[in-house]
Amino acid sequence: MKFQSTAIAVLLYSIAATPVLSNPIQDVSRLEARQSATSDELKNGACKEVFFIFARGSTETGNMGTVVGPQVCSDLKSALGDSVVGCQGVGSPYEATLADNFLPQNTSPTDIGAATTLFDLADSKCPNSKIVAGGYSQGSAVMDGSIQALPASIQNKISRVVLFGFTRNQQDGGEIPNYPASKTKVFCAVGDLVCDGTLIITAAHLTYGANAPAAASFLVQQLGL
C-alpha cells in the first residue's frame, strides 16, 4: 500500500507539473519580467541590505524554481530596489527530488542542511544584512526544518518567512516550530491537498505565483526600509 500511495502521488505530481496561469495576460507579463530560475547573489555577489533565501519545490529547475520563487524575488526588488535586495536559491546538495518528500520531515537532513549552510553564510559573510526567507512545496519543508534548528543568534536575524503549499502545514500547526508565528505567513490555496497533510498534488498546488505580491509585501513590512 505504501508503494501504491507513493506511485499515485508521483503520478499526480507529474500530471500537474505544468504551471497554471490564474490570469494569463497579467501572469505572462510577470513571467517576462521575472528573474531567472537561478539566483546566487549571496554566494557570488557583494553584501546587500537584504537577502531573500528561497527553497524551490520538487523537480523545479535552477535553485529558485519557476512557480513562485523568482516572482517574489522580483517583487522585493521592485519594492526596495535592485541595489538593496539580493536573492539566493537553495541549491546543491538540495536536489529537490520527489522521493525525499516521503521522509519523516518531508525532505532529507541533507536538503535541510543546504538551507542552513546559506543562513550560516549570510551571517558570516554579511553580518549586517537583514534576512527574509521562503519555500515552496518540498522547499517549505526544507525551510521549516532548517529555521527551527538554527541557533538563536542566526534565527533572530530572519525577519520574516513565507511558505507556499506548506507540506508540513498540518503536522506543524501552520507555523515553523521554535520560530515566531507572527513572523511567518503560510499560503495554502483552496484545493491544495498537501496543506491537509497529504502528498497528493492538484492543480491548486501550482497557482502560488499569484501570491507573490502579497508575500513580498509581508516580507517588506518587517524590514523597516
Automatic annotation (TrEMBL):
- Tell me the keywords, alphabetical order: Disulfide bond, Hydrolase, Secreted, Serine esterase, Signal
State a single Gene Ontology molecular function: cutinase activity
Q: What is its EC number?
A: 3.1.1.74
| Top-rank lineage group of the source organism | Eukaryota
**Annotated compartments:** Secreted
Gene3D superfamilies named in the record: alpha/beta hydrolase (3.40.50.1820)
- Catalytic reactions on record: cutin + H2O = cutin monomers
* Record's function text: Catalyzes the hydrolysis of complex carboxylic polyesters found in the cell wall of plants. Degrades cutin, a macromolecule that forms the structure of the plant cuticle.
What family is this?
Belongs to the cutinase family.
This chain's protein is named: Cutinase
Q: To which species is this protein native?
A: Hyaloscypha bicolor E
